[in-house]
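Checklist before submission:
- one chain only
- standard amino acids only
- sequence pasted in full

Submission:
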Amino acid sequence: MDSTWEVACAERLDALGIRWQRDPSIKLQYRCKKLRLRNYIPDFYLPDYDIYLEVKGYWTEPAKWKMRDIMVRYPGKIRLLESLEDISKLSKPVEPTPIDWKTTKIGERR
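Returned file contents:
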């Protein structure tokens, strides 16, 4: 794991009985700000729900760009967890929730 928040997320998923994978061979393509094609390795993949989780505490401008592009390319597939509170509120997904791109901003607290 790359951070204590990712450890907390794994523990929360385990407590909920949600099967997860952390696999560097899972790669999602995106374009960086210079429009070069790159690969993003998600923090967690939930195979039973076909959802990816990204645990993000600090937002750099390149990270914001990357996540915007990924979320456009894979609509409804990425869930951002931006705090320990977000992690503690994790529950079993019922249905994928579409993101309202007109009101949701990357790095914005909800």
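Reviewer check: The mean pLDDT is 84.
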